[in-house]
Amino acid sequence: MIWAAEMNKTIVKYLLGCLLLSVSSQGLLAQATRTAGMNNPYYDEKRVHLGFALGVNLMGYGVTESLVPQNGEIYHARVSNLLPGFSVGFITDIRLAKYLSLRVTPTLQFTSRTITFKNESGAPFPYGRPPEQSVLSLPIELPITLKWTALREGNYRPYVTGGMGISWDFTNDKERALLHKQFDYFMTVGLGCDFYLSWFKLCPEIRYQLGFNNMLVPVSERPELSEPDYFYTNALSHLRNQAIIIIFNFE
Predict the structure, then answer these.
(1) Which domain holds residue 29?
(2) Residues 141-158 pLDDT 10s
(3) Domain count of the chain?
(4) Are residues 48 and 66 in the same domain?
């Protein structure tokens, strides 16, 4: 009887061991199935990762006209000739949770904008001045954003970003008739997708930025400005930075 009881215990232990082995094997098989064909399956488990970004930008202004008569004329202004600029930056991504990370992405922008003026009467501009003013910009930006990602499917994963930032423009040509300020602060939102490649992650993203500071330098702060060029600045009330950026993140 004692022998039979010991035999039963051995059989029960054997069956329990087989059951645990089967469950473990099923879990490993499921994990292997999920990771089969996936590039860098454990990439997102890193706490911190770095990268760089390259892209193009379309930067303009939100223009508010002053509608103040000058020499008996009302001048209107609009941004025209949006020329694509170039963007280059660096990426520091800090993982906060499974689907959330904090990103610091200092970026240097190269861009140019043209503001076209038009008076209501259609008369020639005073003193033979041109109806357009080009504004060259070379801002370095420091956006701090949060990145929310979806569940990874194979080798891609969509995401959205949102945050705030500050910028400082290195251009300060006081000889121009129209001058903008150097400091700005802005909000940014973006939409993109992570593509997991064999050696790195490629993340194309489209981003919109809206500045909050009035970038227009008023005539009262420009004693060096000659009188014939006053009307360019006096025709405006506010200039606010706006930008659409298509960026390719390499992480």
Answers:
(1) 1-36
(2) 999 999 999 999 999 999
(3) 2
(4) yes
168 close to 139: Cβ distance less than 8 angstroms: yes
Full-model pTM? 0.79
Mean pLDDT of the chain: 84
